[in-house]
Amino acid sequence: MEDYIYKRQNFNQREKLRKKRRRRKIFFSSVGVALVLGAGGFFLRNTLLPKLQEAGDSFVKAPLPEAGNPGEAPKSEELPEVKEFTPKRPAEKIPAEKTAPEVKDLKRLKEGSNHSYEASAYAYDTRDVKAWMRGRKDFEGEKNLAFLTFDDGPHKNTEKVLDVLKRHGVPGTFFLLGDNVDKNGTPLLLQRYIEEGHGIAVHSYSHDYSYLYPGRSARPDRILEEYEKTRTSIRGHLGESFDTHVFRFPGGSMSWKNMEEAQNALLAEGIVDIDWNSMSGDAEPKNRRPATSEAMGAYAMKTFRDNGDRKVAVILMHDVQKTTPEYLDHLIDEFLEAGFTFGILK
C-alpha cells in the first residue's frame, strides 16, 4: 500500500513537471513567433515595399515601343546639359525717365505740311474753304468760320501781330514772300509760326506785277518758278519736311488775265490758290482806308457781309502795315462776338 502511494506521488510530480515544461515551450514559441512577425513587418515596410513601388513607377514611366518595331527597347531621351547662368555684368538700374513712353511734341512741324501736329485739329483744306467762301458748297459747321490771313511778310511788324494772336489764342495763315523770307526771316521766327499754331502759305517770291503778269496777263511758268523759290527759302529755315499747297496771287486772282491757265498749272502741282471775301482795308488808298483801329475791325465785318454774308470768312490783312497789330484786337473781337471760330488753311 505504501508502495502504491509512493508511486502515485511520483506520477503526480512527473505530470506537474511535464505540464510546466509544455507551458514554458508554448510561451517561448509565442515569443519567437512574435519576434519573427515583427522582424518580417519591419523588413516589408522598410525594404521590400520601397523596391516594389520603385519597380512599379519604372513600369508606368517606361515609353511604349513604336508601332512597327515590336520588342524594341525604348530609347531614353538625352537632355541637353544645362549650364549655370552667370551674368557678364551686374544688373544696371534704368532711370524712370527712360522707361516712360516717348511723348510726341505736338507743337512741332507736321511732316509734309505747313502747320504743327496740334494745328491739324483746325486746319481746313483750301479747296473746301474756297468753295464755301464762293457759295459753291454749303458749310455744315455749327459755328461760323473765319480765316485770318496776312500777306507780304515776314516783316518787323510780324512779331507784334503774332503777339496779338497769342494773346487772343487764335490762329492765322501767313502768306510769305520769298524775298522777305531771305531778308527778314530767321529760324526762330519761322519756327514761331509753327509752334504757336499758325499756317504758312506762299505769296510769290518778288510780288513784282510786271514780272508775274506782263501785259496784265499771268505767266504760269513764272508763277510756278516763284512758288518753288519761296518754298525753298522757307525750307532753309524749317527743313525739308516743310511743305505747303496754299498760294495767293499778288493782287488777287480777279485782277489779271489768263488766270485759269495759271491756276491749272498750280493745281497740276497740287497747289490751290485762294483770294478773300473780307478785308480790313489796311492796304487801301488813304481816301478809302478806315480812319481808326475800331473802324478797321468794323470794316472787315462789313465787307464780309457785303460779299454774301456766308458762314465762312477769309479776311485779307498785311502784317507789313504798321496799323495791323493796332487794329487786330478790334477785328478779332468783331468776329468773336458774331459767333465765329478760327481756322488755318492747309
Q: Can you give me a brief rundown of this structure?
A:
InterPro entries: Glyco_hydro/deAcase_b/a-brl, NODB_dom, Polysacc_deacetylase_ArnD. This protein has 346 residues and is of the alpha/beta class.
Q: Explain this structure to me?
A:
- This protein is α/β, with parallel strands linked by helices and about 350 residues long.
- The chain folds into two domains: about 1-60; about 120-345, Glycoside hydrolase/deacetylase (TIM Barrel).
- The protein has helices at about 1-60, 95-100, 125-135, 160-170, 180-185, 185-195, 210, 220-240, 260-270, 295-305, 325-335, and strands at about 125, 145-155, 170-175, 200, 245, 270-275, 280, 310-320, 340, 345.
- The strands form three sheets. Strands 2, 3, 4, 7, 8 and 9 form a six-stranded parallel sheet that branches.
- β7, α10 (about 295-305) and β8 (about 310-320) form a beta-alpha-beta unit.
- α10 packs across α11 (about 325-335).
- About 30% of the residues are buried.
- One of its GO terms (biological process) is carbohydrate metabolic process.
Give the secondary structure arrangement, pairings included:
Blueprint: H1 2-61, H2 96-99, E1 123-124, H3 126-133, E2 144-153, H4 158-168, E3 172-176, H5 178-184, H6 187-195, E4 199-202, H7 209-212, H8 220-238, E5 246-247, H9 259-268, E6 272-273, E7 278-279, H10 293-306, E8 312-318, H11 324-337, E9 340-342, E10 344-345
Parallel strand pairs: 1-10, 2-3, 2-8, 2-9, 3-4, 5-6, 7-8
Helix pairs in contact: 4-11, 5-8, 6-8, 8-9, 10-11
Could you state the oligomeric state of the chains shown?
A: single chain
- Secondary structure: number of strands: 10
N-to-C span: 156 Å
String of helices and strands: HHEHEHEHHEHHEHEEHEHEE
Q: Major sheet: size, sense and barrel closure?
A: 6 strands, parallel
Mean pLDDT, rounded to whole units? 85
InterPro entries: Glyco_hydro/deAcase_b/a-brl, NODB_dom, Polysacc_deacetylase_ArnD
GO molecular function: hydrolase activity, acting on carbon-nitrogen (but not peptide) bonds; metal ion binding
Domain NodB homology: 144-343
Biased composition (Basic and acidic residues): 74-90
